[in-house]
Amino acid sequence: MSVEPPSSQADRQLTYSDYLRIPELLRLQSPLSRPMAHDELLFIIIHQTYELWFKLLLHELDAVVANLRAATRRPDSRDEVYEAARLLRRCTEIARLLVEQFTVLETMLPTHFLAFRDRLRPASGFQSEQFRELEFLCGLKDERMLDLHEPAPELFAALQRRLKEPSLRDVFFDALAAMETAPPMSPDAAENERFRMRAQLIVAVYRKEGGHRDWIDVCERLTEFDELLVAWRLRHIQMVERTIGMTRGTGGSAGASYLRATLDKKFFPELWEARSLMCEDPHGS
Question: Which residues does the record give as substrate binding sites (predicted)?
Answer without folding.
Answer: 43-47, 117, 250
